[in-house]
What we know:
By secondary structure, the protein is an alpha/beta fold.
Amino acid sequence: MNIEKKFNEALNLLKNNSYGPAEKILKQILKNNPSHTPSLTNLATLYFIKKNYETGVPILEQSIKLDPNQPIANLNLGAYFLERRDYEKSIKYSTLAIRHNPELIRAFVNNGHAYKQINNYKQSNVHYKKVMERPENINFVLLNYVDNLIIQKKYNEAIKEIELHAQNDSDFLYMKSICLLELNHESDAIEILEKLVMSNNDNEGYIEKLLTVVNEKLGYEAYKNCLENLTLSEKIDLNLMIGKIEFNSGNIEAAGNHINKFHENHRENVESLLFSAFIEIEKSNYENAKGYFEIIVTRGVAEKSFNEALMNYGSLMLFLGDYKNGWKYYNYRYQTFDLGRDLGKYYSEILINKISHQQKSNKPKRLILQEQGVGDLIIYLSAINRYTKQANIYLACDKRLHRLFERSIRDITFIDYKEIIDLSEFDSCKYIGEFAADYVNSIELIDGNAFLSPDPNMTRELKSLLSKTKKNIGISWKSKNNSYKNKSATLMDFDCLLRDQKFNIVNLQYGNIEEDLKRIENESSIQIIEELDIFNDLDGLTALINACDFVVTTSNITAHLAGSIGKKTYLLCPKKYLGGRLWYWTRDYKRNKTPWYDSIEIIEVDGNSWAKAINKIKLNSC
């Protein structure tokens, strides 16, 4: 057979859309020469044209394996896998296309999109930037490029790109307003949002952002005035966005009225059902709230708020003590826009290579990743500690905790979650919350005993610095988590303890507290251990907690460290679940206790009545 002649005949047939005869000739060639890459590539292309990808993709992969120097074939495979959401393969073939033809702009675009989808925003922008070197291609990627900068908190860079390339485009102006808000230029951001709403009076996203920002930054009255002065399209139903703002302003009845009106015409909307559940939770009508969540579950609607709704459903059930169902839905947090994206973004730059799925020994080597903050890490670690004997577990977590953890737990190897981790060295990988959920599917399985061991020598040293004649009370009053309005108190709320001469008040609050100290009365006093860096030396902080007679704290790292070592602790906790009471401070569990830490007593705080609750602790301690 004259292969070259037959191949040219097949090419002419393909050009004339005679796919059947062309397919027949290409198969004949490959029967004689299975390694004829031009025939493999064109046969695969023929199947792609016919949308028979199941047959075409393996053939094209075989052709590229024989001859990687096929930029168009690699480009096509990269695009195919991008569309199928197999981002690793998409990157593999798009990168091969670029290697053999750096002029293939579409390959850079595909790589930018694929890296963005796996939360590697830095690499995504490396490829987008290459596309943007040619002015005619900027519009292909600019929106994604700027979005990546915002996700990476590079707000000034994002503004610079917008002003350079798209200063009058509505979508980019909106993104500029987001950047200005993050940079605390509220008035400039509001001015842009007002102009956007005037020129796009049917854009619900712009309208809601404007009203929300005005309410948060300028106050409720300013928001009401802004709402009254808006001239909007009659097509817009404002009831949901007004209901959300009223809810966040504490006006629960007004929120319910607006969301109910919205329901009349939008019964399938997940976000409105979610806020209906929130309203019922706020009223402590938990069964009614669960009813709304169940409607969302049965809807199964692929909206942005769907995963967030299921995460909140799981969190509520955990709070109510239903761990079996609670974990199932709470695990949807990994798919939410905020937490899921942030975790993916972080670990995309830490984890390299892939799990091989080929067990390397009789004892599988399991990698567990920290998620969220130190408090959550300690909660989950307490859950799995008693179940992981001889389990060959490696926990990637905050290095500040390694000394404390290594002293206390001998069956887990601790590694730094900020250092590069090679996944190919492990047999499996999970977030620690997922791992804990596998072991603790009932509240009765939780062991609230102390499981961490403070350094005895450091405890003795620090105790020598404290009062010998007074009760030493360690206090901590705020959290880095700003998601909740009522999660933090102020140092002034502790005034009744600070002024009482029977007590020596010891600072356990991490971070900068200079402004807090300026606000307290001259008669008030608090002992600060200058020799100890509370933020960076968490082993030292744990020893200081241990040196105190007891601890009074809000829900923060201090509470978890104190509970984990069995130190008597009064936890100041909002009474209302959505007011800042997290799921692990369980409702109605054994008279103001938590299953997680036997030594913690929960002191419920109504609204912002922190001082009243602290005074109650003082009276009990005298």
